[in-house]
Amino acid sequence: MPAARKKSLPPVTDEALALIASWFRTLAEPSRLKILRALEEGEKNITEIVEATGLTQANVSRHVQSLVEAGMVGRRKEGLTVICFIADPSITDLCDNVCSNLLKRLSNQVKKLGGS
After folding, report:
1. Which of 5, 10, 25, 75 is 20 to 30 A (C-alpha) from 67?
2. Measured between alpha carbons, how far is 66 from 11 in angstroms, rounded to an integer?
3. What does the alpha-carbon distance between residue 82 and residue 46 come to, in Å, rounded to a whole number?
4. What is the number of other CB atoms lying within 10 angstroms of the CB of residue 70?
């Protein structure tokens, strides 16, 4: 039985699709996902992100910049300290949905292989 048909989506230009693809490419880097997960716990400065992720300070700074440019993470200064935070809460929902779907798929694969 075919799945229920969703309402049709509005047309999207090639330029818009390129922007969407770029946004997803930003998420395709595991280090950036580590940073996002660390920031889900709350605002952190760069040193705290380094400690939470195990990445180097240079890597964290570079990846935070990419996340900021994509609009996923925001930054503000408190004195000499840069505080990072999740600027787009929908990114947390997206990551939660992807993780849930992966868990379901893996669980189904385990069942097919005779696991429990």
Report:
1. 10
2. 28
3. 7
4. 19
- pLDDT tens series, the chain, 116 aa: 455 667 788 888 999 999 989 999 999 999 999 999 999 999 999 999 999 999 999 999 999 999 999 999 999 999 999 999 999 999 988 888 888 888 888 888 888 888 66
Which pair of tokens denotes residue 72?
């996923």
Closest alpha carbon to 68 in 53, 82, 54: 82
Per-residue tokens: 108: 């189904």
Tokens of 52: 């939470």
Which amino acid, 13? T
Q: Helix (H, G, I), strand (E, B), or coil: what is residue 88?
A: coil
* pTM for this entry: 0.78
